[in-house]
Amino acid sequence: MRKCILGLWTPIVIILALTTISWRSVNREIVRPLTVDTTTVQPSKTVNSDSLYNNYISKLYDSAGLELSGLRLEVFEKAVTGFYNLKNSGKIAEDKSVVTIADFDLRSTEKRLWIIDLNKKTLLLNTWVAHGQGSGGDKAVNFSNTSESLKSSLGFYVTGEVYNGTHGRSLRLDGMDEGFNSNARRRAIVVHGANYVGPQTISALGRLGRSQGCPAVPQSVVKKVIDNIAGGTVLFINSSDERFNSKYLDETMMSTLKPWEGGADNV
Predict the structure, then answer these.
(1) pLDDT (0 to 100) of residue 192
(2) In 3D, which of 80, 213, 73, 196 has the Cα closest to residue 143?
(3) 95: domain CATH number?
(4) Minimal CA–CA distance to 140: which of 234, 244, 225, 228?
């Protein structure tokens, strides 16, 4: 009789033990995911610096009335990013706040050159600019860093010294982007005036005349252009050509210069 009773209790004890173990195991599995999920859904309190920079760019863009002039916001952002990276690298004059943009995504019949004072938040000039003979007809589609190519070169330039040459008063340029415009001085790629740049040529040809690779501007404004951008300012020649890249377009390089701090709200 005793053996029978013990035999009946043994399976009951085993079942109770297994139930207890199973309950504890499940309990542990439920608690852990809840802890992780609770942490994951907590909203971040940190403001992304990129959003501050983008806000700064948008305010500059609006203050200078650049949309009305036809300059695209994304092109302006690239130019300003390059400006601050070049300034951070000590490549441009400390007291200069002017950036010049030539957008070769646009046709030559459009006023596709802008000179902007970032500190004053002012558009100083918007005018025509020619591209190289080898780059295309009304629109520039081919670019080169090679001598005798007669093509325009993309990228960031720093303006150099003023001189009098074949085209009169001219401004030398130094290309900052290796492989894209680094041969600019050797190729004599300069800013100069040209009588084939302006509305008369557009009326006659349906497009501007073309240079040998230089960003040539109308004779009527060449003095104003050179006076505003000479002596260590940034010139950016833009295109959506997928082959172009520049280290100066990296927003993470601006580690010490944060233009959005201490004044972005006042733009």
Answers:
(1) 98
(2) 213
(3) 2.40.440.10
(4) 244
Whether the pLDDT of residue 45 is over 80: the answer is no
93 and 8 within one domain: no
Are 31 and 110 in a shared domain? no
Q: Report the distance separating Cα 125 and Cα 186, nearest Å.
A: 28
Asked whether residue 264 carries a pLDDT value surpassing 50, the answer given is no
Q: CB neighbours of 95 closer than 8 A, spacing ≥ 6?
A: none
CB-based contacts of 93: which residues, under 8 Å, 6+ apart? 231, 232, 233
pTM of the complete model = 0.79
pLDDT of residue 235: 98
Tens-place pLDDT, residues 66-120: 999 999 999 999 999 999 999 999 999 989 999 999 999 999 999 999 999 999 9
Domain residue limits at 258: 49-266
CA distance 233 to 75: 17
Residues 6+ apart with CB under 8 A from 188: 214
Q: What angle do CA 89, 179, 225 make, to 5 degrees?
A: 65
Higher pLDDT among residues 162 and 257, named by residue: 162
Judge if 57 and 31 occupy the same domain: no
CA atoms within 13 Å, Cβ hemisphere of 130: 31
Q: Are both 64 and 127 inside the same structural domain?
A: yes
Q: Per the structure, how many domains does the chain have?
A: 2
My answer on whether 26 and 139 are in the same domain is no
Report the distance separating Cα 79 and Cα 82, nearest Å. 5
- Whether 116 and 2 share a structural domain: no
| pLDDT at position 260 | 67
